[in-house]
Amino acid sequence: MSRALISVGGTGQHVALAVTRLVQMGALRRDIKLIAIDPDTETPLPQLLESPGGMSADRHPLGMGRVFAPFDVTRVGKKMFSEMFVDADNPLEQDLFEAMFDGNSASIPVYKGMFGTPCVGATVFAEGSNGSALQDLLKPMATQSSVFLCGSVVGGTGAGVIHKLIAEVRRYNEKEMFGVFMLPWFSLPTTGAADAITDAKIQRNTKHGVKYFYEHTLPRLTTSLLLGYPQGRNTELLKPLTLGAGDMGEHPHYLHLVAARALVDLPQAHTADRGVKAYAMAHDEDRAREGWLLDDPWEADVPLRGLVRAQRLLLNVLTFILQNSAKMLAFYQRGAIIRSLGSFPWGSDLHASITSNTPGNAQQGQFVEQILRELEQVRREAEFCVSWAEQVFPLKMLDVSSDALMDKLLDGSKKGADSPVHWPYLADVVWKNRPLMRKPGATQTAVDVARHHAGLVLAAAKGA
Amino acid sequence: MPLFPLLHSYDQAPSGVRPGLFPILDGKTIPAAWQPTPAEYDPVAFPTPFARAEATRLVLTQVEDAGPHPLWQQFRVMLLGVASGALELALSDLATPAYDNFGSALLRVDAEARYFCRVLSSDGSTTFGATYRTCLFWGHARRQSQEWDQIHHAILPREKEALQVLADWRQALRDVGRWDGRVCGWQRGVDAVVGETPASEGLRTLHEDTRFVGPVLLELPSGDPTEPTSLELVHLPRHAPGFARAFQALCRLEPKLGAEGIELRAPSGAVVGAIALPPVGADTDALAVGLGGLKLPSVPAALAAAPEGGRRWVDGPGGLLELLEPVRVALSKRGHMSSPDAHVVKHLPFYPDAIRLLAKTRARVAGGETYSARADSLLLARGVGLPDAAAAEAAGGVTALVEAGGRTARIVLLDSLDGVEILDLRALGAVLWAVYDGDARASDNGANVLTVESGRPMMTQGPGPTLDPQPWVYDAVSQAPGGSSRRLATLQRFVASYSIEAGRAGPLDGILDRAARSFARWAAGVAEVTPMGRQGVAAGKYSLPIGVEARLVRDALTSV
Question: Which residue of B has its CA nearest to A93?
Answer without folding.
Answer: B99
